[in-house]
Design a protein that fits this description.
Layout (H helix, E strand, L loop, with lengths): L1 E5 L2 E5 L10 H28 L16 H12 L6 H9 L2 E5 L2 E4 L2 H8 L10
Antiparallel strand pairs: 1-2, 3-4
Protein name: Cytochrome P450 oxidoreductase
GO molecular function: heme binding; iron ion binding; monooxygenase activity; oxidoreductase activity, acting on paired donors, with incorporation or reduction of molecular oxygen
Organism: Capronia epimyces CBS 606.96
């Protein structure tokens, strides 16, 4: 604390020095935390993908692990009206069964519906 005298008054000035830069150990801890978070998130997505047991069904690479791919495609379809439906393009590229999410399969084969849903299930008509 610095003391200055002006006439009969004494004024105290707090000299605030800037904070020193963080030591490199803080930067190392931040980098380690980011790496650990990335590893845990990757493992979570990988295990979730394997739990679905849909590895044999082809589809876009990112769609195996997250629904972000499908969300991006829906956003593109809503914002760019001149684009064709991405599902039709996927069927042309990958076949009648396409994995479009970690637990979501696009089926365009009418014969596969009875296998997927079973004989006792009733399919509702959608307009």
């Amino acid at each position: 604390m610095a003391k200055a005298r002006f006439g009969t008054e004494t004024i105290f000035h707090l000299s605030m020095s800037p904070l020193p830069p963080p030591p490199s150990s803080y930067l190392f801890l931040a980098a380690a935390a980011v790496a650990l978070f990335s590893l845990i998130a990757s493992l979570y997505l990988y295990v979730g993908s394997k739990k679905a047991q849909l590895d044999h069904i082809p589809g876009p690479w990112l769609a195996k692990y997250t629904d972000a791919w499908r969300g991006y495609q829906a956003w593109r379809l809503n914002h760019y009206k001149d684009l064709s439906n991405y599902q039709i393009n996927l069927i042309g590229r990958y076949g009648d069964l396409v994995r479009i999410g970690p637990n979501i399969v696009l089926c365009f084969d009418p014969e596969a519906i009875s296998t997927i849903y079973g004989f006792k299930e009733r399919l509702e008509k959608v307009n």
